[in-house]
Write a structure and sequence with these properties.
It is a single chain. By secondary structure, the chain is mainly beta. The chain has 3 domains: 76 residues, no CATH class; 55 residues; 261 residues, 3 Solenoid (Pectate Lyase C-like). It contains 2 helices and 41 strands. This is DUF2793 domain-containing protein.
């Protein structure tokens, strides 16, 4: 055997003279065969003035000095062409093609990427930079820093650079996740809808919305609590039966108004600092009847910044705006009121159980121009220390109840100097009740129409003050009564 099996490098014989010739020949073959970079792969005739060391893959059908050398690697050295016959698996880089080629035993072809697709920067199935790419992470980069640099205008670019993440549909997600050991801790983007979300997580499993940017209005919401909007003027929110609680509430249209009074109040309580101003919830005509056991408005948290809140309907025909509940108070408070809560120009009714207005927290409720329909319990109930209901204008009663008004648990009720109109002779167990060291002031009020039932009951050190109007002051068909220190004055 006189040469190596793969590259054909000549062996030096034991007693060979001029060994340097054989050694130099082997070096020349190595220089031709190692790290092969060829100028071209399509030529059939040799170049006229090749540089020493230039290499080419001879194309099929070659002529001249290359005749019969198709597919061979031709190297110009010492004014002559040398040819290496490739074996299957040899690779060369073609400068002209800007591509890596491999010899398959019969022809040269582009090196294939994973999956057998011809190598192309436009058709990579996956790419790992300094790491392996996984099937779910087709582009994977392991680096201390990653830089995206704009193409300058001088280089025919725009000078801008944008990273776009595009999802298939609104319910899908396009986001960026920040992780600790591949466990997510923060995420921003379009997560599950087309609003912009900023989320955080303590464990990578339970995520909380910290910020939400409404795509339609641009308003910033704080779903988990946060900075409040400071009002610099009075504000009005609108509620309509054809509204939507995902709306912003700023316009009196189906596409702008809230659907429920509860949503309007929750926005006020959770997102605003009233700064001493007044927020009005303007309720359009219609019936507002939540599911059984649910109030139309439940004040479970106070608003911030003082000022006042008004819930108002139709001033011309209050009965056109009906708040109707089953097994629940129509309007209920369980949190202190930072300022007056005004309820006017509405009709209230309840069935099975529930008061029209149930005030069980400190603070003032102002009522006016209401229509009280039938109530399962009381039309107006106040029952907590510091709770105060005051009538600021006359109102109408069209339906019966166990009591029209109840003041208990050291609360107060002031229904003074107005006209109360009763229609249809509504029936009550007792019209007015005060107990538990509470005070109800009805002085100066007059009644139009009649009712059935006891006129009043005062007990447990409660006080009803009529300004000395006498025992027949209240509507009813039977006499009132006092007990346990109750005072009727």
């Amino acid at each position: 055997m006189t040469e190596t099996a793969n590259l054909g490098l000549p062996f030096i014989e034991g007693g060979q003279a001029q060994k340097h010739i054989t050694h130099n020949e082997a070096l020349r073959i190595l220089d031709d065969a190692i790290q092969i970079s060829v100028q071209d792969t399509a030529r059939t005739t040799p170049p006229l003035a090749p540089a020493d060391g230039e290499r080419y893959v001879v194309a099929s059908g070659a002529s001249g000095a290359w005749v019969g050398q198709g597919h061979a690697v031709a190297t110009w050295e010492t004014n002559a062409w040398r040819f290496l016959a490739p074996k299957a698996g040899w690779c060369v880089w073609s400068v002209a093609d800007n591509a890596m080629l491999v010899f398959d035993g019969s022809t040269w072809m582009p090196v294939s990427a994973a999956g057998g697709t011809p190598f192309s920067p436009d058709n990579l199935t996956h790419l790992g930079i300094n790491t392996a790419a996984a099937e779910t992470n087709l582009l994977t980069v392991r680096s201390d820093d990653v830089l995206f640099h704009a193409i300058d205008a001088d280089d025919d670019g725009t000078g801008d650079v944008r990273l776009q993440l595009s999802k298939e549909a609104a319910e899908n997600t396009a986001s960026v996740v920040f992780a600790n050991a591949f466990s997510g801790r923060a995420e921003f983007g379009l997560t599950g809808d087309d609003d912009f979300h900023l989320k955080v997580s303590a464990d990578g499993t339970l995520w909380r919305d910290a910020l939400k940017f409404d795509r339609t209005t641009g308003r910033v919401l704080f779903p988990s609590g946060g900075a409040r909007e400071m009002l610099t003027a009075d504000r009005t929110y609108y509620v309509r039966t054809d509204g939507n609680d995902s709306n912003a509430g700023f316009s009196n249209t189906a596409g702008g108004a809230f659907k429920t009074i509860q949503r309007a109040y929750d926005v006020i309580a959770a997102t605003l600092d009233l700064g001493g101003f007044t927020v009005t919830v303007q309720v359009a005509d219609g019936t507002y009847a939540p599911p059984s056991g649910t109030s139309v408005l439940a004040v479970s948290q106070p608003w911030t910044g003082g000022g006042s809140v008004k819930i108002q309907g139709n001033a011309s025909t209050p009965a056109s705006v009906l708040l109707s509940t089953t097994n629940a108070d129509a309007i209920a408070t369980a949190a202190p009121l930072p300022g007056p809560l005004t309820i006017k120009n509405l009709k209230l009714q309840t069935a099975a159980a529930g008061n029209g207005i149930s005030h069980r927290a400190a603070g003032t409720i102002l009522i006016g121009s209401l229509v009280f329909g039938a109530a399962a319990n009381a039309h107006c109930f106040t029952g907590a220390p510091g709770a105060f209901i005051r009538a600021i204008s006359g109102y109408t009663i069209t339906g019966g109840a166990i009591q029209h008004s109840v003041a208990t648990s050291t609360s107060s009720m002031f229904v003074s100097g107005i006209v109360v109109t009763l229609t249809g002779t509504p029936a009550f167990t007792t019209f007015a009740q005060a107990s538990g060291c509470s005070v109800a002031d009805w002085s100066g009020t007059s009644f139009s129409g009649g009712a059935t039932g006891a006129r009043y009951i005062v007990l447990i050190n409660g006080v009803i003050y009529t300004g000395g109007a006498g025992p027949n002051f209240f509507p009813g068909s039977t006499a009132g009564s006092t007990a346990s220190g109750g005072q009727y004055l």
